[in-house]
Design goal:
The protein is α+β, with helices and mostly antiparallel strands and about 120 residues long. It is built from four helices and four strands. It has one domain.
Length: about 120
């Protein structure tokens, strides 16, 4: 656990696409606002027991430490954009009509097809 972190991001640590996304988030998070953990790390699923176990394989999850609020998939991307200083100006785009719908559909498509997009052999299981 990172001291001072306001959020925890749980991602699929076996997914190459997810690993690349997390590397970008780490570069943007110079203030240490986000603790980043792989869903495969010991104790993570128990720590976030309010998230169904199968959901860890379907999307990344961002959890606010103070309130326990949880965002998943494209909603997590929106919240990440909002809290990271260099990307805050992108977050209002999600309020443009149909952007959220398109973002949700795109996120689900990438998540479903990540094994074809360079994720790795485990994704096809």
């Amino acid at each position: 656990m990172i001291r001072g972190a306001s959020y925890t991001l749980v991602f699929d640590g076996n997914c190459r696409i997810c690993q690349r996304a997390v590397a970008s988030i780490r570069r943007l998070d110079r203030g240490g606002v986000i603790e980043i953990v792989a869903s495969q790390e010991p104790g993570v699923r128990a720590r976030f027991s309010s998230i169904p176990s199968a959901a860890f394989d379907e999307a990344m999850h961002l959890i606010a430490k103070d309130s326990g609020a949880t965002w998943s998939g494209a909603a997590a991307v929106e919240e990440l954009l909002r809290v990271l200083p260099r990307t805050r100006w992108f977050a209002p785009l999600f309020h443009v009509p149909f952007v959220r719908v398109v973002a949700d559909a795109m996120y689900r498509w990438v998540a479903r097809n990540r094994h074809r997009l360079g994720c790795g052999e485990h994704c096809s299981l």
